[in-house]
Amino acid sequence: MPVPTIEWKDNRLRVIDQTLLPHKLKFVDCDSAKMVWGVIKNMRTRGAPALGVAAAFGVYLGVRRSKKSIFRDLDRTIQYLSSSRPTARNLFWSLERMKKTAYAHRGKPVQRIKSVLLEEAKRILEEDRAVCRKIGMLGSRLIGDNDNILTHCNAGGLATGDYGTALGVLFAAHSQGKRIKVYVDETRPLLQGSRLTAWELLREKIDTVLICDNMAASLMAAGKIDKIVVGADRIAKNGDTANKIGTYNLALLAHYHKIPFYVAAPLSTIDVNMKSGEGIPIENRQPDEVRKIGNVYIAPKKVDVFNPAFDVTPNKFVTAFITEAGILRKPFTASIKKAFSI
Ligand code: MRU
Fold first, then answer.
1. Which of 15, 71, 22 is nearest to 46 (CA)?
2. What stretches of 222-298 show up as alpha helix (H) in DSSP?
3. Ligand 1 in reach of 45 Cβ (< 6 A)
4. What is the model's pLDDT at position 68?
5. Residue 335 to residues 59, 316, 331: CA-CA distances in angstroms?
6. What residues does 181 pair with on adjacent strands?
């Protein structure tokens, strides 16, 4: 059953407050661009595709009371929302798409521009839902009966319009009757694996085993992992992939242990203007996220902290990308280029 991650309801953007999961399923209703910025920044809503959807509605909310100054308000809102989180390509892809849509209607009545923007945001949400199902369906062909799969962070329904990318692949395989076991990295510091992925997999009654991040190597050495499937926040045009911190560790381990390493992501995560992973902006987050677990300090309050939210996996460690345009294999520069021309 899909997750109601993000919806347009009663003229507001409704998102699940993911900081409260798995204990409470509560919603936050946003009726301004400022609120949308806040839920993105504080990671109440998170995951690259979901950020793209939230940002699109944020643009509409930022101009819905505009009069003659609609284009000035639009530009300011887009600038403002783009300052929320830097890494996920989908957020910028969506802001660019909303801007293009508005400018294509320049000269039309203000009311018309507003309704076009709302329709475009709804379309971005619907497209994401369809694209994730396609990724799930195509990716499920790579999953065999009795496979043991490792995943990291949360690339599930909570990270997208409602179905997920990496988890979409697993949901689709499970719904086809394949017996799979999924090992879930807890994903420090914010525990998206244990709080969100484990919650989603158990809702679907998928055999789920939670591990601490530092247990992956020994599982692989013991021959207990057949495949790794993760999502992505931004993929450069050569296939270098930014994803949740710790993904690179897994890719290196997979390479050593000769385990296929798949990245599931929509084309909207691929940044065709980014030559390689070196240029991908990596978000650094608050030190207290590492010093604490929940509200409890687990370290001296003054200790220095290194807290990048993402790392970059070099393309050579990726076996294939699972996208709505098909399974993209090496050389990635060519297969990515081809996917965009279809
Ligand atoms: O910081 P987050 O939780 O927004 O990061 C999200 C991730 O890194 C996910 O694992 C992911 O694969 C991208 S969303 C499908």
1. 15
2. 247-257, 288-291
3. no
4. 86
5. 33, 14, 6
6. 148, 207
In a domain, 48, yes or no: yes
Per-residue pLDDT tens over the stretch 82-109: 999 999 999 999 999 999 999 999 999 9
The conformation of residue 308, written as its DSSP 8-state character, comes to B
**Rounded distance, CA 156 to CA 196, Å?**
8
User: For the chain, how many structural domains are there in total?
Assistant: 2
Q: Is the beta carbon of 131 within 6 A of some atom in ligand 1? A: no
226 counts as catalytic = no
Which amino acid is residue 325, in one-letter code?
Answer: A
Listed residues 133, 161, 185: the one ending a domain: 133
Whether residue 226 sits in one domain with residue 187: yes
- Based on the fold, state whether residues 169 and 196 are members of the same structural domain: yes
Whether residues 221 and 318 share a domain: the answer is yes
Distance from Cα 242 to the centre of ligand 1, integer Å: 9
- Residues in the chain with pLDDT values less than 50: none
Within a domain: 1: no
Ligand 1 close to Cβ of residue 242 (< 6 A): no
Judge if 95 and 206 occupy the same domain. no
3-class DSSP state of 28: strand
- What distance in Å separates the CA atoms of residue 226 and residue 179, rounded to the nearest whole number? 13
pTM of the predicted model, to two decimals?
0.97
Whole-number Å distance between alpha carbons of 284 and 108? 41
Same structural domain for residues 34 and 172?
no
Q: Is residue 229 part of a domain?
A: yes
Bond into 287 cis (ω within 30): no
Is residue 203 located within the same domain as residue 62? no
**What is the DSSP code string of 127-196?**
HHHHHHHHHHHHHHTTPPTT-EEEE-S--BGGGSSSSBSHHHHHHHHHHTT---EEEEE--TTTTHIIII
Q: Which domain does 302 fall in, by range?
A: 141-341
Examine residue 291 and state whether it is found in any structural domain, yes or no. Answer: yes
Ligand 1 mean position, distance from CA 104 (Å): 32
Model pLDDT, residue 151: 98
Q: Whose CA is nearest to atom 8 of ligand 1?
A: 244
The pLDDT assigned to 342 comes to 64
Q: Which helix (H) or strand (E) holds 270?
A: strand 270-271
Domain boundary residue, one of 133, 165, 198: 133
